[in-house]
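sorry for the late reply, my laptop died twice this morning and i had to redo everyting from scratch. anyway the thing you sent over, i finally got around to it. pasting the sequence first so we're on the same page, its 420 residues, then the predicted structure underneath. double check i copied it right bc i was rushing
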Amino acid sequence: MFPNLLNGKKILLGVTGSISIYKSLELIRLYVKSGAQVRVVMSESAKKFITPLTFETISMNKVLHRESESWDNDLNHIKIGAWADLFVIAPASANTIGKLSNAIADNLLLQTALAYPHPKLLCPSANTNMMQNPIISHSMKMLALSNYTIMATQSKLLACNTEGDGALADPEDIYFHSAQMLLKEEFWQDRRVIVTGGGTIEKIDDVRYLSNFSSGKMGSSLALALFFKGADVNFISSRFPQRLPKAMHQISIEGSAELKEYIVDSIRVAKKGKMTKPTLMSDANPQLIQKKPFLFMAAAVSDYLPAFPQHGKLKKADVGEKWSLELRESEDILSSISKEGIFTVGFKAEMNADTALQSAQAMLEKKGVDAVCFNLLHDSSSFGTEQNALEFITREGRVILDKEEKLSLSLKVLELCKSL
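ok and here's the structure:
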């Protein structure tokens, strides 16, 4: 999905006896395409659905199951866990969930899970009545209190031909959460961050509008990078050009007035904050420290908007041969909002190479931001590309970030933001 994102990471995938096991093959493909090494441990029930050979072919590694376990190498339930950076169980059947919560280890997958000391990602899949059984519900709560992160199931037509909750989460969402568990950092974890993206859409009438060529890809990549780093992301955009995690808070907007309204409200909520884990200031008086929020203003806000937007559709016959559309200057959102108690990063796109850098540097004082991400455009073809190049400008200086894929570029921007 994202080449090189998981380079050097080692993922152990546990698969159990569920009809949704075929989705785990797609999950392995996503991990491998991102550069991760993947190994699989199977319950005996899982082998009734898919053979170990299939998983070996997809993962390019020997599968651990009852017939393959060996103590001459690391293909056993102790050493394979020591190898892994992350243990994902997908799908996790109701039987497996019940046994895990009671520390029952009567197959290799359960033994591996019991011996694995680090956080694990559990992805349930079962019939609705099985998932809602009070014993399974209690088991899920017990596992959530242990070192398990639990993915929510989906409501859809299940394999038993009944509609209900119990379907395995989409492989893409399991991938997103896996990447977050592997890549999250203390600096960003649980920090509230607002990201804006896309070009605003200013209504002329109910069928026409003014906008710009901004695709929203940079804002979307920033939001995704922040999610991977563990931030509590609120992504506000007019366009959503790529698949994002369902767990990410996303708000769709159109015009600049609506954008400002959501930014102001989001900043207010962010300042209240979600408290981070306790930091002991003293043994007698533990306190919680709130992390300062961030705003990344990557949206391309229209400089002008129609002075008199119309309801319905303006008829050509009523307008006549010539149409003079009256525009008024839009509010400068970034200048107008209060930045007290929040880090603010602005984005500046220019085309005049002679004055572009000076204009970007002036933005620091003019709009009162902490940093500016500046890029020089050539023409309209510069929009909507998969790659970008930026200069990260602060009052202390500037850092040139060479052209690369926008998610990788976003991760570098986040690293620079840690010094603000």
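The two ends are 31 Å apart (CA to CA).
thats about all i looked at so far, will dig more tmrw
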